[in-house]
Amino acid sequence: MAEAITASFEAAMARTAETALERIAAARVSIETVIFGQTEVVEQSLVTLLSGGHGLLVGVPGLAKTKLVETLGTVLGLNARRVQFTPDLMPADILGSEVLEEAADRRRSFRFVQGPIFAQLLMADEINRASPRTQSALLQAMQEYHVSVAGERHDLPQPFHVLATQNPLEQEGTYPLPEAQLDRFLMQIDVVYPDRAAERRILIETTGDTKTEAKRVMNAEELMATQRLVRRLPVGESIVEAILDVVRSARPGEGDPAINKHIAWGPGPRAAQALMLATRARALLGGRLSPSIDDVAALAVPVLKHRMALTFAARAEGETVSDLVTRLTGRLG
């Protein structure tokens, strides 16, 4: 009897996985009909959402970061809203606020008016152009999936994801994000310049009189079903140990002293959780039902780089967080 139940469960999971793989493949194709030459960025963005997390897209203006987030909302069938972060933006402009209303009998009461954060996909555009106070308005929402206004709790829609775009800190009018908020982002996705062939395609396909539109291939319920599947994928003991090795060796006082001496502070347990989920999601995105060491190596940099800081001496010597993490993953068996 127990064997029959187990077999039935495995067959049902196989059917669920097959359907999910088809949807994910279709979503990727649909996204890449309008986003050219950013294969790794598209992959990491999908991994972030399939993991149930939030993503921080970093790059100079004009690299289609905003277009990518809009496209993801369309393709995945999510209710999406956009907030343009500016220096004068206030927390209430994001969360919402209480307004005083007077009824016909002259009784007065407060009514909560929801802000744009009440969406399934929130695009925080140029998030580092707002003050740290306003940036911090997202902290509770990104971790606890509800907000508190005037002492009252207001639950956010499900699923809830924040995809924020950020200009490099060297540019004018930017504020660094607080470390506590950076840790809420499952992954930092670096958006780089396209290669020549991709830029040529951009020139030809985006300056004519016809416009290609991405098509919806999933809805919110299907996305959440896929996220549940990601959490059910088996992870081998060797993968668990590899994740622990990378994350723990990226902290001061642990791992190789030659690398360790460059680290001022490193990632916490949330980083290991993020890497575990992300490797599962990347495996599923690649048509596999179990992650490998290659998945850990491929995702260690985007998952860890915004959760670490170098010492002053290391920065003076030209070291970077990405290089250190790459050296750590190079030791994985």
Write the layout of secondary structure elements.
Layout: H1 2-31, H2 39-50, E1 55-58, H3 65-75, E2 80-84, H4 92-95, E3 96-102, E4 108-114, E5 121-125, H5 132-135, H6 139-144, E6 146-149, E7 152-155, E8 161-166, H7 179-182, E9 187-190, H8 196-206, H9 220-232, H10 237-249, H11 257-260, E10 263-265, H12 269-285, H13 293-304, E11 309-310, H14 312-316, H15 321-329
Parallel strand pairs: 1-8, 1-9, 2-5, 5-8
Antiparallel strand pairs: 3-4, 6-7, 10-11
Helix pairs in contact: 1-9, 2-12, 10-12, 10-13, 12-13, 13-15
Give a verbal description of the structure:
This protein is of the alpha/beta class. It has two domains: 169 residues, Rossmann fold (3-Layer(aba) Sandwich), CATH 3.40.50.300; 100 residues, Helicase, Ruva Protein, domain 3 (Orthogonal Bundle), CATH 1.10.8. Helix content is 47%, strand content 15%. It is built from 15 helices and eleven strands. The strands form four sheets. A five-stranded parallel sheet has the order 2-5-8-1-9. A two-stranded antiparallel ribbon has the order 3-4. Strand 6 and strand 7 form a beta hairpin. Helix 1 crosses helix 9. The longest helix is centred in the first third of the chain and has 30 residues. The radius of gyration is 22 Å and the shape is globular. The two termini are 41 Å apart.
In percent terms, what proportion of residues is strand? Answer: 15-25%
Number of strands: 11
Overall residue-averaged pLDDT value: 88
Radius of gyration: 22 Å
CATH top level of the largest domain? Alpha Beta
The CATH topology of the largest domain is given as Rossmann fold
Kindly report the name of the CATH homologous superfamily of the largest domain. P-loop containing nucleotide triphosphate hydrolases
Structural class based on helices, strands and sheet pairing: alpha/beta
Q: Helicity level, as a percent range?
A: 40-55%
What best-fitting shape do the alpha-carbon axes yield?
globular
CATH architecture of the largest domain: 3-Layer(aba) Sandwich
User: Spatial order of the strands in the main sheet?
Assistant: 2-5-8-1-9
The SSE order reads: HHEHEHEEEHHEEEHEHHHHEHHEHH
Q: Gap between N and C termini, in Å? A: 41 Å
Put simply, the count of helices is: 15
Low-confidence stretches: none
Largest beta sheet, briefly?
5 strands, parallel
Question: How many separate domains?
Answer: 2
